[in-house]
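Table S2 (text version). Query chain:
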Amino acid sequence: MSKLNVLVTGVSGRIGPHVVGPFRESYNLRMFDRRGDATQTDLIIGELLDFDALKRAMQGIDVVLHLAATSDERPFIEELVPNNIVGLYNVFQAAHETGVRRIVFASTCQTVLKYPYDQTVEITDPVRPCSIYGATKVFGEVLGRFYHDQHGMEFVGIRIGAFGVGTPEHLRRSSMFRHLWLSPRDAVKLFRCAIEKPGVGYAVVFGTSRTEREYLSLTAARELLGFEPDDDVMKQASAETVG
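Corresponding structure-token output:
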């Protein structure tokens, strides 16, 4: 079978560097970022506000993994709106106009973190954002619903947990992170599932490794994408800290 043509946005962010190597082996990879080596043939330099640059980047692409965003709390009008609202719309519209068949969207667990930690949050539970940043990611999930229903574009939103957060000592001290941890290896595995699973239609799932207690239910990720995490936060927390 021929390789999928995959575009990854935001490759210079927290998650991007972890996916580039594995994805180069598996897919025909193209990257979009606001910084980098302009002579790199598989990298297009541009901003999310540059609609034409996004359209150029998406020519011939099958699946977009959209990681680029202003992450965590920032001034709403000045920083969150340009990238997480207007820029996000540009990504969807550019994908639609160029015939991209699926968007895999990096959402966040911050869409639901107002639920108490002593219960299990299902993907079907109403959103309860803990931040304005989380609220902008809810917009992305809803935009995915619209583009799926209106234009037939497939969409997978992944509510990413605490990505690669902290040392073993940090994890031992913080029960919150032990409930949310997502290892880089499991993140790559989950993104692969979201890119490759046939007939996904529209889906939103939580993304964590094996946590101390399954606060964010992985049922949807297992059933819809066939994802099962390999890494265990308790093993990570019990590891010896180096240095």
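Notes on Table S2: The chain has one domain: 5-238. The longest strand covers residues 102-108.
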